[in-house]
Design goal:
The structure holds 2 protein chains of 2 kinds. By secondary structure, chain A is mainly beta. Chain A is built from no helices and 10 strands. Chains A and B meet through β5 of A and β5 and β10 of B.
Chain lengths: ~130, ~110
């Protein structure tokens, strides 16, 4: 079955960087993209960005531009999200989810965020 | 940026009742709207896509409707496992992709 498995809990100090991985299985990795979404404790969902595993094209939310780097390794079917210059308000659960391969995809279930990884808790604290 | 506003923030119902959740967009998103369910301690999961299509394996008691700016998620005859938080999401005009703030469905 289609599955995304993320890396484990991270504890970082303010100003540091964190790199979260997301390993895909059960589908052709390069036929889709990966999106990253975070959820602060007790809060809603916030979109960070998207990367096409097909061509490596990335789009990030303006709020995170310059701080977030998204990459993929097609040989290991793994996506990575690197967030730098961490602050305490970056403390959150970070999710990856399978996403469409293009930024102009149309209708259809494959063009939505499905499935999601289990989440990675990132705690930023001095 | 398209803002999605969900209402109510919390909905208190009993098993067997019908739930009606609303999502309003600040500008038209056509039918590029999805609904996700999130249970405590779990990742969100896709329920409805393209405003009205049930995702694979989703029971028929879940239905979505709407287009443009006004959307509704209806859950008929609530089951105990349906009590969760529900989010709407749009991808019509992105970046950014945006989510509503969520509706908590509680017993």
């Amino acid at each position: 079955q289609v599955q995304l498995v993320q890396s484990g809990v991270e504890v970082k100090k303010p100003g540091a960087s964190v790199k979260v991985s997301c390993k895909a299985s059960g589908y052709i990795f390069t036929d889709f993209g990966i999106t990253w979404v975070r959820q602060a404790p007790g809060q809603g969902l916030e979109w960070l960005g998207w990367i096409s595993a097909y061509n490596g094209h990335t789009i990030s939310a303006q709020k995170f531009q310059g701080r977030v780097t998204m990459t993929t390794d097609t040989s290991t079917r793994t996506a990575y999200m690197d967030l730098g210059r961490l602050r305490s308000d970056d403390t959150a659960v970070y999710y990856c989810a399978r996403a469409p391969p293009y930024d102009s995809s149309g209708y259809g279930q494959d063009n939505w965020f499905d499935p999601w990884g289990q989440g990675t808790l990132v705690t930023v604290s001095s | 940026e398209i803002i999605l506003t969900q209402s109510p923030a919390t909905l208190s119902l009993s098993p067997g009742e019908r739930a009606t959740l609303s999502c309003r967009a600040s500008q038209s998103v056509s039918r590029y709207l999805a609904w996700y369910q999130q249970k405590p301690g779990q990742a969100p999961s896709l329920l409805i896509y393209d405003a009205s299509n049930r995702a694979t394996g989703i029971p028929a008691r879940f239905s979505g409707s709407g287009s443009g700016t006004d959307f509704t998620l209806t859950i008929n005859s609530l089951e105990p496992e349906d009590f969760a938080v529900y989010y709407c999401q749009q991808r019509h005009n992105w970046p950014p992709i945006t989510f509503g703030q969520g509706t908590r469905l509680e017993i």
